[in-house]
Amino acid sequence: MTNLVSFHEAFSLPAHLHAHTPAELRGNDRSDVKLLHTERKNGRIQDRTLIDLTELLQPNDLLLFNRSRTIPAQLVSETDNVTVRLARQLTETSWEALILGKDKTVVQLQDGVTLHVQGDGSEAPLKRVTFHGLQEPVLSFLHKYGEPIRYEYINTPWSLEAYQTVFASVPGSIEMPSAGRAFSWKLIHQLKQNHIQVGFLTLHAGISYYEDNQWPDPLHHPEAYMIPAETITAIHEAKARGGRIIAVGTTVVRAVESYAQKKPSHQGAWTDTTNLFIQRKTPLQLVDGLLSGLHEPHSSHLELLRAFLPDDALLSSYQHALQNNYLWHEFGDVHLML
């Protein structure tokens, strides 16, 4: 397990800073969130709002979004009160999953479908499970009987649509790639009017938390990603014009830097899997800036953020966010490191 001891000791997250409610239900619009801006060159911190991106970004900059769509990856048994959180698809009917509740070898689901535990997964506490008795594709079954994964800080069973970005179009993420959630089509249009470029890729995000203070080790969780040819072209053209590449979310950083490490000789569409673990000493080859949510002390995402900011600047940014009541998690505020 990844354990960032220094950050864990440096701050804790008070309950009132957990975002319980989607931004559009707290304010006027899903883009109605605060933006914490930390300048990479000097560590300067500014309090802004997301719509200020039209001022903070420059013509020829390229914003890259993850268009993966969240699937309802949590199932509850018809008996025994067992909760199954799917973590990663292995074959058409086999998955790695987190099983919460009674220790079962067979979990009874709806429509006579059963889930059989086959053995241990890639790391504890994951298990390898297989669906039996399906009369339809797994994704169809999930949309009938599944629900989005929710953690203890969410008090309301929000619908699956609350866990989607406006541009989500390729189903596959276990949890929402949430950094892009606050973007509306209106804001994206305003950015384009300011000659800020926009591109899309797909990386299906996996499960982020195992319960009981256990977090996934990214090295054990390869994720599939696809970068379209037009996005690859846009990256190279932006660089040639002196523009900056700003990733919206850690999943985008992982996909783009995985592509960069492979150094393909062609600029066509690129499909691959990655277990790249970006950390403090990882050289960033293509991405110049990151727009991300705010992460909990033990999250492995914090290690990736250390590739963008030195520890003192990152810690100062998080202390500032705490002192100024920024909201955490998928419905919370955002942090720009540029």
From TrEMBL:
Keywords annotated in UniProt: Cytoplasm, Isomerase, Queuosine biosynthesis, S-adenosyl-L-methionine, Transferase
Q: Which InterPro entries match?
A: QueA, QueA_dom1, QueA_dom2, QueA_sf
Q: Which GO terms describe its molecular function?
A: S-adenosylmethionine:tRNA ribosyltransferase-isomerase activity
Annotated GO biological processes are: tRNA queuosine(34) biosynthetic process
Protein's recorded name: S-adenosylmethionine:tRNA ribosyltransferase-isomerase
- Cite a single Pfam family from the UniProt record: Queuosine_synth
Q: Name its species.
A: Shouchella lehensis G1
- Cited SUPFAM superfamilies: QueA-like
Superkingdom of the organism of origin: Bacteria
